[in-house]
Amino acid sequence: MADGEPRTAEQIATIANVDPRHLKELLSANAVNEYVNYEHDSERFYMTPEQIAVFATEQSPANMQGLWQIIVAQFAEHETAVEVFRTGKGRPWGEQHACQFCGTDRFFRPGYEANLVNQWIPTLEGVKERLEAGGTVADIGCGHGSSSVLIAKFFPDSRVFGFDMHEPSITDARNKATAAGVENVEFSTADAATVPSNGGYDFACIFDALHDMGDPVGVARHIRNGLKPGGTLMVVEPMAGDNTEDNLHALGDVFYAASTLICLPNSRSQEVALCLGAQAGPKRLGRCCATQDLVQFVSRRPLRPISFSRQETRKCEVDIAHPGETLKKSEFGARRQPLGNLASGYTTVARRAPVSVVLVATPGSPKILSLAACRT
């Protein structure tokens, strides 16, 4: 159905090699929820481009197949999840169901492929040039290594070190690098708080993992101490406002739910157990990363950056605002918009929500950049 062509249930069943009667029942259920569409005159089912992006295209930034896999992981061990929720005793990342790890990689990988090399890294002053010249990179909490391999592939003269505390994920990451033919990346099992310095890093990054850690402040301090002079730490996190009311939308729903079952229990299982949660917001993230005085808030869309200081509000053009509309900082990153059904809702968020940036720096000290990124 990824080609968008209308077909009968029997035709689709032949292509998918499944039972046609069961498939028609399933397609009908999905048509009720507007995940697919139905032509009653011809009795054919089809998907719109928005539905295809969410449900049928693995490389799409709006793809949600990884999310469904994460949900499966939680249902598979729901007794444990309920017990952890009831007692608050914590649950280490490594004790999650196996589908959790590959599902998380599938969920976030399309966003990295769409933005990491072309958008996020070029935002950082001097980082792209350092990596092109041959720098050293630390990817902390790398999971299955998608971000590490991507950086290594696009910057072949740099050396990339990927670290994760979950040994099976590190094994998968090594296999992924081998399959990609990338030789300038090395994966090791290590806790974020004990990542080796390897002589210092030009660029260190944490993708969608800082909020999972028990002591994110200590981790940020440790990584910062391992940077070379002028080095940069980039932290990418799920986009969120600072207050609960800022995040009462479809994407907030996804991240709050995942945080309840996955992120908070993992943080609770570690020392300090700060429990930031997956909707921490720029203020708390900035406090975790910053020891300096200068804080600048920046929103970056693919072609045009706009910035907000703590003292002022500027007129700007962003995808979630009308051209020239003044967007108050309290609304930044949290503007509610009509989301419609699940398919069009997540596609809208993925295509249109901006990326918020917290940049912390002082003269003569390493720069700290926190990208509180949406699911794009």
Explain the overall architecture.
This protein has 376 residues and is α/β, with parallel strands linked by helices. It folds into 2 domains: 9-47, no CATH class; 65-293 and 364-373, Rossmann fold, CATH 3.40.50.150. The chain contains 13 helices and 11 strands. The strands form 2 sheets. The chain has a 9-stranded mixed β-sheet with strand order 5-4-3-6-7-11-10-8-9, sandwiched between helices. Strand 10 and strand 11 (367-373) form a beta hairpin. Helix 1 (9-16) packs across helix 2, helix 3 (49-55) packs across helix 13 and helix 4 packs antiparallel against helix 6 (98-123). The longest helix is centred in the first third of the chain and has 26 residues, at 98-123. The protein is globular. Residues 292-376 have low confidence and may be disordered.
Q: How much is the average pLDDT?
A: 81
- What's the total count of β strands? 11
Overall number of structural domains: 2
Gyration radius (Cα, Å) is 21 Å
**Helix coverage percent:** 40-55%
Shape: globular
Reading the helices and strands in chain order gives: HHEEHHHHHEHEHEEHEHHEEHEE
End-to-end CA span: 23 Å
Number of helices: 13
- CATH class wording of the largest domain: Alpha Beta
* CATH level 4 superfamily of the largest domain: Vaccinia Virus protein VP39
CATH topology of the largest domain: Rossmann fold
Instruction: Specify the structural class.
Output: alpha/beta
Beta content: 15-25%
Instruction: Name the poorly predicted regions.
Output: 292-376
CATH architecture of the largest domain: 3-Layer(aba) Sandwich
Question: Order of strands across the biggest sheet?
Answer: 5-4-3-6-7-11-10-8-9
Largest sheet, in brief, is: 9 strands, mixed
